[in-house]
What we know:
It contains 13 helices and 14 strands. By secondary structure, the protein is α/β, with parallel strands linked by helices.
Amino acid sequence: MDVLDELNPPARLLLGPGPSPVHPRVMRALAAPVIGHLDPELIRLLDDTRGLLREVFRTSNDLALAVSGTGMAGMEAVLASLLEPGDRLVVCAAGFFGQRMAELAGRMGVLVTKVEKEWGEVFAPEEVEAAVAEAKPRAVAIVHAETSTGALQPMDGLGEIAHRHGALLIADCVTSLGGVPVLLDEWGADAAYSGSQKCLGCPPGMAPVTLSPRARQAMTTRTRPPHAWYLDLDLLERYWGGEHAYHHTISSTLVYALREGLRLVVEEGLEARWERHRSNAEMLWDGLEAMGLVLHVPDPGRRIPSLTTVRVPEGVDEVAVRGRLRDEYGIEIGAGLGPLKGKVWRIGLMGHGSQKANVILLLAAFVDLLRRP
Length: 373
């Protein structure tokens, strides 16, 4: 039998839509000894992580935990735990992940009212209110930072609108948590989920989730269990919370990593971290526009500081540019999705990757690559 080569993946500067560069302290945490999922020391680390999640989500919610899986696991856990077949959900969709929420809810038997806009636009409060007033849903779901378009959705007032019509507000914070202001209690959001591999600067594999007391009440009054046992937030809370009842064999290694990533966020300070992401994004935007490139979201106030979409110039082979960027410079950026496929590049400055040196290197690489025939 042939002996397999030793694992030696290439070093990449991850400046795409995720995963993002992992902080050295998080990498060291990943190398700590594996312990059991019911070990008292791991239980202590889970408690630490819950407190850190509340701080980073800016919430006092008791239910704060991380689902084993990527941000999509968080999305499914929230939708499946709060909604059941026959419930009505309003989804505000102006990009790939808004569309995915609608598709996922539909697969669960939820009756979805989809409110759509052009990819790259955001929703005004009156548009959300009109849809909720007409549909009378159990919940309304919206993407805070739409990773496919680079558009940042204003959240002020949306919780009040949802609650006035007897609905819950669900927020997708996958690309915003830890890099853009996320203020769940201030917004009145009842449920939110994110991913460890974006602005938190950890490897993929954990999906932070939190539910308000209102959402927990909705979860406990449903008439049937969620379809996904593994993603049932009531069962997961019994493991993460006071009972610490066995649910599944959680990865202690990924808990170490998430806890360390959250510690880094808190040590830096949320306001300082948000300002770092904003400042580096503005430097990137200025540099791209100075090269004559056009940003997909024209209004700087509606752009996500952690994820920029830039239009591919006419006549440029976007796949070739991404390939050369990877092979010659060791930099990964992302391609467009859906109707933006082949039309935009997606550039992430997330977590540990949001650094001025990375912006300068990427801009210099673009200058080199785009002047070639």
